[in-house]
Amino acid sequence: MLTRDILSSAAPEEVFGRLGTGRYLSDDERLASMLEMLQSRPEGEGIWIFAYGSLIWNPALEFDLSYRGVLKNWKRAFCMKLTAGRATGDIPGRMLALVPGAGTEGIAYRLRESDLEQELVVLWKREMSTTSYIPKWEQVELYNGEVITALVFFMSQNDATFDCNYESESVAECIARAQGPLGTNADYLHRLNNALDENNITDEYIIKLSEKVARMHASKKHLQ
After folding, report:
1. Which among 21, 76, 150, 151 counts the fewest CB atoms within 10 Å?
2. Which residues pair with 134 in a beta bridge?
3. Cβ–Cβ contacts within 10 Å for residue 165, how many?
4. Does pTM top 0.90 for this prediction?
5. Integer distance in angstroms from the first to the last C-alpha of the chain?
6. 3-state secondary structure 148-194
């Protein structure tokens, strides 16, 4: 489980393990990326982060507000080839990102202005340790009716880790077997499925994929 202390004190390779594909960004590269996003922050608003994956069930951030919300025109997909964290280069897995779609429900967190930079440093080490994600400002409609501009981490489809074969039939077996320094790939999926359910968010892709992986594990145990 990722914690604030681990993310604050350890180098990415210590946290996630050795990468099988790609490279870790340097501290200077991550800082430059973070400062660039801060310079383009929306005027008159606090900094909001839109969570659609593990940030829902383990935000590891200090925030003062959180709301359920919708990001239009995108959907969840396990489209990133994973070779660290919950996988290795020898036993790769898949990580969650966003691809074009009908819309994604998630949780929006508003960071406190007084803690802003230190929270973003932690967040950047978690989400921007490699070249796989691209941070963007996007509109999110909250369930209280308010429309905010939130920071969203998208998958770079030009990155070597992008895999367009992300349907449940294509990734279930890979997720079922992968594991790494942070645990199993399947545990990530099941935690996400449970967190969505607890927040009254329905995502048929995640439900279907979680059921497939659970059946694979049950079948394997039965054969043993």
Report:
1. 21
2. 154
3. 10
4. yes
5. 28
6. EEEEEEEECCCCCCECCCCCHHHHHHHHHHCEECCEEHHHHHHHHHH
